[in-house]
Protein backbone atom coordinates (compact mmCIF):
# COMPACT_ATOMS: atom_id res chain seq x y z
CA UNK A 1 0.00 0.00 0.00
CA UNK A 2 2.87 2.32 0.87
CA UNK A 3 4.52 1.52 -2.46
CA UNK A 4 1.33 2.52 -4.30
CA UNK A 5 1.18 5.82 -2.39
CA UNK A 6 4.84 6.53 -3.13
CA UNK A 7 4.30 5.71 -6.82
CA UNK A 8 1.24 7.97 -6.98
CA UNK A 9 3.12 10.82 -5.34
CA UNK A 10 6.07 10.35 -7.70
CA UNK A 11 3.79 10.46 -10.73
CA UNK A 12 2.10 13.63 -9.43
CA UNK A 13 5.49 15.22 -8.82
CA UNK A 14 6.68 14.38 -12.34
CA UNK A 15 3.49 15.76 -13.87
CA UNK A 16 3.78 18.94 -11.81
CA UNK A 17 7.40 19.47 -12.78
CA UNK A 18 6.54 18.83 -16.43
CA UNK A 19 3.79 21.46 -16.32
CA UNK A 20 6.06 23.99 -14.62
CA UNK A 21 8.86 23.36 -17.12
CA UNK A 22 6.44 23.65 -20.05
CA UNK A 23 5.12 26.98 -18.75
CA UNK A 24 8.65 28.21 -18.14
CA UNK A 25 9.65 27.15 -21.64
CA UNK A 26 6.67 29.00 -23.12
CA UNK A 27 7.70 32.13 -21.26
CA UNK A 28 11.32 31.87 -22.33
CA UNK A 29 10.27 31.41 -25.94
CA UNK A 30 8.46 34.76 -26.02
CA UNK A 31 10.54 37.62 -27.35
CA UNK A 32 10.76 41.20 -26.15
CA UNK A 33 9.10 43.92 -28.19
CA UNK A 34 9.88 47.64 -28.13
CA UNK A 35 7.01 50.10 -28.69
CA UNK A 36 7.55 53.70 -29.82
CA UNK A 37 4.90 56.44 -29.91
CA UNK A 38 5.04 59.75 -31.79
CA UNK A 39 2.67 62.74 -31.68
CA UNK A 40 1.68 64.63 -34.84
CA UNK A 41 -0.83 67.47 -35.21
CA UNK A 42 -1.92 69.49 -38.26
CA UNK A 43 -3.61 72.90 -38.03
CA UNK A 44 -4.71 72.42 -34.42
CA UNK A 45 -6.92 69.47 -35.32
CA UNK A 46 -7.08 66.35 -33.19
CA UNK A 47 -3.66 64.70 -33.26
CA UNK A 48 -2.51 61.51 -34.91
CA UNK A 49 -0.55 59.04 -32.80
CA UNK A 50 2.05 57.13 -34.80
CA UNK A 51 3.32 53.81 -33.49
CA UNK A 52 6.21 51.57 -34.39
CA UNK A 53 7.21 48.15 -33.08
CA UNK A 54 10.68 46.60 -33.12
CA UNK A 55 12.41 43.57 -31.70
CA UNK A 56 16.08 42.74 -31.35
CA UNK A 57 17.42 39.89 -33.47
CA UNK A 58 21.07 39.05 -33.94
CA UNK A 59 22.29 42.27 -32.32
CA UNK A 60 20.06 44.53 -34.41
CA UNK A 61 16.52 45.86 -34.24
CA UNK A 62 14.01 44.70 -36.83
CA UNK A 63 10.45 45.93 -37.45
CA UNK A 64 7.61 43.75 -36.23
CA UNK A 65 4.58 43.39 -38.52
CA UNK A 66 1.07 42.30 -37.59
CA UNK A 67 1.21 43.28 -33.91
CA UNK A 68 -1.84 44.82 -32.23
CA UNK A 69 -0.95 47.87 -30.14
CA UNK A 70 -3.60 49.28 -27.79
CA UNK A 71 -3.62 53.07 -27.43
CA UNK A 72 -4.96 54.98 -24.43
CA UNK A 73 -5.34 58.67 -23.63
CA UNK A 74 -4.26 59.81 -20.15
CA UNK A 75 -5.09 56.51 -18.41
CA UNK A 76 -5.04 52.81 -19.22
CA UNK A 77 -8.76 52.38 -18.66
CA UNK A 78 -11.86 51.61 -20.69
CA UNK A 79 -12.74 55.32 -20.72
CA UNK A 80 -9.28 56.22 -21.98
CA UNK A 81 -9.12 53.54 -24.69
CA UNK A 82 -8.58 55.22 -28.08
CA UNK A 83 -8.33 52.19 -30.30
CA UNK A 84 -6.10 49.39 -31.55
CA UNK A 85 -3.44 49.66 -34.26
CA UNK A 86 -2.09 46.74 -36.28
CA UNK A 87 1.44 47.35 -37.55
CA UNK A 88 2.24 47.06 -41.25
CA UNK A 89 5.18 45.33 -42.93
CA UNK A 90 7.48 48.13 -41.78
CA UNK A 91 6.32 47.78 -38.19
CA UNK A 92 4.46 51.11 -38.33
CA UNK A 93 0.89 52.25 -37.82
CA UNK A 94 -1.13 55.31 -36.87
CA UNK A 95 -4.40 56.27 -35.23
CA UNK A 96 -6.25 59.59 -35.26
CA UNK A 97 -7.63 60.59 -31.88
CA UNK A 98 -11.39 59.83 -31.82
CA UNK A 99 -13.72 62.83 -31.73
CA UNK A 100 -15.12 61.79 -28.34
CA UNK A 101 -11.88 62.97 -26.71
CA UNK A 102 -12.05 66.47 -28.23
CA UNK A 103 -13.38 68.35 -25.18
CA UNK A 104 -10.84 66.68 -22.91
CA UNK A 105 -8.05 67.31 -25.40
CA UNK A 106 -8.93 70.99 -25.88
CA UNK A 107 -8.73 71.77 -22.16
CA UNK A 108 -5.65 69.71 -21.26
CA UNK A 109 -2.27 71.45 -21.04
CA UNK A 110 -0.47 68.15 -20.55
CA UNK A 111 -1.23 65.06 -22.62
CA UNK A 112 -0.29 61.47 -21.94
CA UNK A 113 -0.60 58.60 -24.39
CA UNK A 114 -0.08 54.95 -23.50
CA UNK A 115 0.66 52.09 -25.85
CA UNK A 116 0.47 48.44 -24.78
CA UNK A 117 0.97 44.99 -26.24
CA UNK A 118 -0.84 42.29 -24.26
CA UNK A 119 -1.66 38.60 -24.68
CA UNK A 120 0.56 38.27 -27.73
CA UNK A 121 1.71 34.75 -28.63
CA UNK A 122 5.15 35.86 -29.78
CA UNK A 123 6.07 38.66 -27.37
CA UNK A 124 5.88 39.43 -23.70
CA UNK A 125 3.46 42.09 -22.46
CA UNK A 126 4.92 45.54 -22.98
CA UNK A 127 3.84 49.14 -22.48
CA UNK A 128 5.20 52.62 -23.14
CA UNK A 129 4.12 56.19 -22.42
CA UNK A 130 4.41 59.45 -24.32
CA UNK A 131 3.92 62.77 -22.52
CA UNK A 132 3.30 65.89 -24.60
CA UNK A 133 2.91 69.54 -23.63
CA UNK A 134 0.00 71.10 -25.55
CA UNK A 135 1.21 73.67 -28.09
CA UNK A 136 0.19 75.22 -31.39
CA UNK A 137 1.59 77.29 -34.26
CA UNK A 138 -0.11 80.49 -35.41
CA UNK A 139 0.76 81.07 -39.07
CA UNK A 140 0.40 84.37 -40.93
CA UNK A 141 1.14 84.90 -44.62
CA UNK A 142 1.19 88.42 -46.04
CA UNK A 143 2.29 90.27 -49.16
CA UNK A 144 3.20 93.96 -48.99
CA UNK A 145 4.60 95.78 -52.03
CA UNK A 146 5.29 92.46 -53.78
CA UNK A 147 7.27 91.24 -50.76
CA UNK A 148 5.90 87.95 -49.50
CA UNK A 149 6.51 87.12 -45.85
CA UNK A 150 5.89 84.16 -43.55
CA UNK A 151 5.27 84.74 -39.85
CA UNK A 152 4.95 81.92 -37.33
CA UNK A 153 4.31 82.10 -33.59
CA UNK A 154 4.63 79.14 -31.22
CA UNK A 155 2.31 79.09 -28.20
CA UNK A 156 1.95 76.59 -25.35
CA UNK A 157 -1.18 76.03 -23.28
CA UNK A 158 -0.71 76.82 -19.59
CA UNK A 159 -2.52 75.13 -16.68
CA UNK A 160 -4.65 78.27 -16.23
CA UNK A 161 -5.96 77.90 -19.78
CA UNK A 162 -3.94 80.77 -21.28
CA UNK A 163 -1.62 80.47 -24.26
CA UNK A 164 1.96 81.65 -23.66
CA UNK A 165 4.76 82.26 -26.22
CA UNK A 166 7.41 79.56 -26.49
CA UNK A 167 10.94 80.99 -26.92
CA UNK A 168 14.08 79.26 -28.22
CA UNK A 169 12.27 76.57 -30.20
CA UNK A 170 13.43 75.33 -33.59
CA UNK A 171 10.89 75.70 -36.37
CA UNK A 172 10.94 75.17 -40.13
CA UNK A 173 9.20 77.27 -42.78
CA UNK A 174 8.23 74.96 -45.60
CA UNK A 175 6.30 74.45 -48.80
CA UNK A 176 4.29 71.27 -48.44
CA UNK A 177 4.60 68.81 -51.32
CA UNK A 178 3.26 65.33 -51.93
CA UNK A 179 6.33 63.33 -50.89
CA UNK A 180 8.27 65.71 -48.65
CA UNK A 181 8.41 69.34 -47.55
CA UNK A 182 10.60 71.91 -49.31
CA UNK A 183 12.42 74.66 -47.45
CA UNK A 184 10.46 77.85 -48.16
CA UNK A 185 13.21 80.34 -47.29
CA UNK A 186 16.98 80.74 -47.37
CA UNK A 187 17.45 79.19 -43.92
CA UNK A 188 16.50 75.59 -43.25
CA UNK A 189 15.55 76.17 -39.59
CA UNK A 190 14.79 79.15 -37.39
CA UNK A 191 14.64 79.68 -33.63
CA UNK A 192 11.73 81.54 -32.06
CA UNK A 193 12.64 84.79 -30.32
CA UNK A 194 12.69 85.21 -26.56
CA UNK A 195 9.81 87.71 -26.41
CA UNK A 196 6.91 86.64 -28.58
CA UNK A 197 7.99 83.15 -29.62
CA UNK A 198 7.94 84.29 -33.25
CA UNK A 199 9.93 83.87 -36.45
CA UNK A 200 9.60 85.77 -39.72
CA UNK A 201 11.17 85.34 -43.16
CA UNK A 202 10.63 86.44 -46.74
CA UNK A 203 9.38 84.00 -49.35
CA UNK A 204 11.34 84.29 -52.61
CA UNK A 205 10.94 80.83 -54.11
CA UNK A 206 9.54 79.97 -57.51
CA UNK A 207 7.46 76.87 -56.94
CA UNK A 208 5.04 75.23 -59.39
CA UNK A 209 1.47 75.34 -58.14
CA UNK A 210 -1.86 74.23 -59.53
CA UNK A 211 -3.59 75.83 -62.50
CA UNK A 212 -4.33 78.90 -60.35
CA UNK A 213 -0.87 79.07 -58.76
CA UNK A 214 -1.98 77.75 -55.38
CA UNK A 215 0.65 76.19 -53.12
CA UNK A 216 0.58 75.14 -49.46
CA UNK A 217 2.96 77.12 -47.25
CA UNK A 218 3.47 76.11 -43.65
CA UNK A 219 5.48 76.16 -40.45
CA UNK A 220 6.64 72.96 -38.81
CA UNK A 221 8.10 71.83 -35.50
CA UNK A 222 9.62 68.44 -36.20
CA UNK A 223 9.74 65.73 -33.49
CA UNK A 224 10.26 68.07 -30.55
CA UNK A 225 10.79 66.34 -27.21
CA UNK A 226 8.13 68.46 -25.48
CA UNK A 227 5.62 69.21 -28.22
CA UNK A 228 5.99 66.40 -30.75
CA UNK A 229 5.43 67.28 -34.41
CA UNK A 230 3.28 70.35 -35.07
CA UNK A 231 2.33 71.67 -38.50
CA UNK A 232 0.38 74.78 -39.48
CA UNK A 233 -0.32 75.25 -43.19
CA UNK A 234 -2.29 77.56 -45.46
CA UNK A 235 -3.06 77.62 -49.17
CA UNK A 236 -1.88 80.77 -50.95
CA UNK A 237 -1.43 81.88 -54.59
CA UNK A 238 2.34 82.21 -54.41
CA UNK A 239 3.19 79.50 -56.90
CA UNK A 240 3.72 79.45 -60.65
CA UNK A 241 0.48 78.46 -62.41
CA UNK A 242 0.75 75.05 -63.97
CA UNK A 243 0.09 75.05 -67.71
CA UNK A 244 -1.30 71.64 -68.70
CA UNK A 245 0.85 69.85 -71.27
CA UNK A 246 -1.33 68.19 -73.89
CA UNK A 247 1.54 67.42 -76.25
CA UNK A 248 1.28 63.72 -75.53
CA UNK A 249 -2.02 63.61 -77.40
CA UNK A 250 -0.48 65.45 -80.35
CA UNK A 251 1.70 64.02 -83.10
CA UNK A 252 5.25 63.69 -81.74
CA UNK A 253 8.20 61.31 -81.60
CA UNK A 254 7.27 60.16 -78.08
CA UNK A 255 3.55 59.71 -78.78
CA UNK A 256 1.78 56.44 -79.52
CA UNK A 257 1.98 54.83 -82.97
CA UNK A 258 -1.29 56.35 -84.15
CA UNK A 259 0.17 59.81 -83.32
CA UNK A 260 3.33 59.44 -85.44
CA UNK A 261 4.40 62.78 -87.01
CA UNK A 262 3.28 63.16 -90.63
CA UNK A 263 6.80 63.94 -91.86
CA UNK A 264 7.97 60.67 -90.32
CA UNK A 265 5.29 58.86 -92.29
CA UNK A 266 5.83 60.68 -95.62
CA UNK A 267 9.60 60.95 -96.04
CA UNK A 268 10.54 57.34 -95.25
CA UNK A 269 7.86 56.15 -97.68
CA UNK A 270 9.20 58.51 -100.37
CA UNK A 271 12.70 57.15 -99.80
CA UNK A 272 11.46 53.56 -99.98
CA UNK A 273 9.49 54.21 -103.17
CA UNK A 274 12.47 55.99 -104.75
CA UNK A 275 14.90 53.17 -103.92
CA UNK A 276 12.59 50.48 -105.23
CA UNK A 277 11.85 52.61 -108.31
CA UNK A 278 15.56 52.82 -109.10
CA UNK A 279 15.93 49.07 -108.60
CA UNK A 280 13.03 48.31 -110.96
CA UNK A 281 14.40 50.80 -113.50
CA UNK A 282 17.81 49.09 -113.43
CA UNK A 283 16.18 45.69 -113.84
CA UNK A 284 14.21 47.03 -116.81
CA UNK A 285 17.36 48.44 -118.45
CA UNK A 286 19.27 45.20 -117.87
CA UNK A 287 16.40 43.28 -119.47
CA UNK A 288 16.52 45.58 -122.53
CA UNK A 289 20.27 45.09 -122.86
CA UNK A 290 19.86 41.32 -122.77
CA UNK A 291 17.21 41.46 -125.50
CA UNK A 292 19.37 43.72 -127.67
CA UNK A 293 22.30 41.33 -127.23
CA UNK A 294 20.20 38.37 -128.36
CA UNK A 295 18.92 40.27 -131.44
CA UNK A 296 22.44 41.28 -132.49
CA UNK A 297 23.75 37.75 -132.10
CA UNK A 298 20.94 36.33 -134.26
CA UNK A 299 21.72 38.75 -137.05
Automatic annotation (TrEMBL):
Keywords: Membrane, Signal, Transmembrane, Transmembrane helix. Residues 1-24 form the signal peptide. It comes from the Bacteria. The chain crosses the membrane at residues 262-284. This is DUF916 domain-containing protein. It comes from Solitalea agri.
Amino acid sequence: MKQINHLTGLIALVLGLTTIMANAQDKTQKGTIQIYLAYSQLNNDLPVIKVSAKTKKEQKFEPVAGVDINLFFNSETTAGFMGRVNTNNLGNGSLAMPIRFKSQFDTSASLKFIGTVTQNKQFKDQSTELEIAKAKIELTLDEVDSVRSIHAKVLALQPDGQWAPVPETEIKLVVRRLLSDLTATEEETYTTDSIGGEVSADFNMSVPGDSKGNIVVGAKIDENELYGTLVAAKTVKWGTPLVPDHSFSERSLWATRDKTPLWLLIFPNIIIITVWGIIFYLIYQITKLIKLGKENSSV
